[in-house]
Design a protein that fits this description.
This protein has about 160 residues and is α+β, with helices and mostly antiparallel strands. Helices cover about 30% and strands about 35% of the residues.
Length: about 160
Amino acid sequence: MSGLNLNELVRQAQEKNDFDSLLSLIPYAKLIGVECLRLGDDLVFRLPANRDNIGNPTLPAIHGGVIAGFMEHAAMLHLLMFMGIPHLPKIIDFSIDYLRAGHYRDTYAQCRVWRQGRRVANVAITAWQTTQTEPIATARAHFKVDEPYVAPMDAS
């Protein structure tokens, strides 16, 4: 997808307050059911309760990998929406702290860009379920933002 098309999708999503077209570009976000809501100038990401995302059926609790994937994708989409880059950012590293069990209910995430340089952006992500002041996880992510990701060529 060209940068112009992605920029146009971002512009339309912001104008219409409908982010489904952007979310559909990211297969994993679509698989786990990520949604995006705009509240004023803020974005809040939502992961609806889904039995397919359960890792511990005894509690039941959301799989930790699903929580981490949700938070990473929220940060990537947040950068795309607010930082004016014409391509999907590429993850450099991701560090998560699990604070509470992610029970079988809707989960929310909000992001804050601590720093964006020409090449790298640093994002803090907080995920919660019942109240934002009681997060289930916090994370830090670093993204490469200076050039688009190009998949390696198949060597066969």
